[in-house]
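quick one before i forget lol
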Amino acid sequence: MSRPILGPHAADFLWATGIEDTFVPQTRAGHRALDEYDLIGHYEHWRENLALVRDVDCRAVRWGVPWYRVEPLPGEFDWRWTDQVIPYLVDELGILPIIDLMHYGCPFWLRREFAAPQYPQAVAAYAAAFARRYGRWVRYYTPLNEPQINALLCGRLGQWPPYLRGDRGFVRISLQLVQGILQTVDAIRAVDPQAVMVHVDAAGLVRTAHPHLVGLAAEEQLRGYLHYDLLTGRVTPDHPLYSWLLRSGASPIELAAIAAHPITLDVLGLNFYPQWSTRLLGSDAQGRLTWGLTEHEGAGFAMLLREYYARYRVPIVITETSAHGSDAERLAWLHSSLAAIKAVRAIGVPVLGYTWFPLCTMIDWRYRFGQDPLDRYRLELGLYRLGDPPTPRWTASPLVAPFRACLAQPESVVGPLGSANITWPSKQSD
């Protein structure tokens, strides 16, 4: 089949959506399993859910594989469910899948999860097995979604397994994730040299109004780039965070080994939510550092796109964005975010795709730590809302029609791309 490719023209702009696919199946006292597919009934209703992608006229969908289910024992794979879903998605619906191989959690058999010494080899072996089986249908892969959030929740805050804490935990998990991504890329490319990697991380901005905190805010901004910097071989002894990494448990040998095995980023996938992606650094009356959320309208979005492109000089796809609040607020973000993309494309920043994420109702991650019934944790960021029997399963929100209208007129919505000095992923047909 002919495989679509990202391109510079407005007509090539990749409009996408996604099914929320966080998998943290491990439990402990006070923690419930968090499998979004299970919680919204995607394992049973996948045909109906994925048909909404076509109904909203998207060309592509971010869709994740539950590793813990498809590899229940080391090296033993159960593809029965994915054998149904992926051909249906591509052959019947005509939708391009961008496959999340890792959207958080690990299998039960991988003790210590991301901290396990064998994690990088284990995840790469799973990725290779997937690519061998589904390479006919899949070209675009996300090796691991949001390493920054993984490292935060699994390493610094101790909320998800393996429950590490502090800077040392953050760095330990970060280095494991990066090595897993590097080995995953090699494993997939050994199966399909034409595979395109969409490297996705949470993107954000750090602000401060306090003149004495400008340096610290700049350092925090650098931490947001850390995983991309590690992957691209930028973390050498002259990197501004190198000393912090050493003090936080990284070894010079390990950092040198990662820097010696850099990869070229095919596509930079950026996740940005206006209410949650810009933080304000300040201090309280006692001089203690404080953090808050600011710019809920997403005013810094265009600046963020310019800064990421200036740093990495590769094509960008907005792999997650949406807004929380009233339909009017969400619609305002749809239009303002696309206006920002149009503005930066005009000056040569190659934003080549836009993903309203998720497509439909998801379950707030607070469900994992809560005690209330499931329906109390419904989070309405998507285009469709989950109904309760006897009403229809999905109801279109007021955003669906405006979203479709944007897709129908890309030339006016995202505009032309100014001159950009980048390398494009090569086109491949088979």
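fyi The mean pLDDT is 95.
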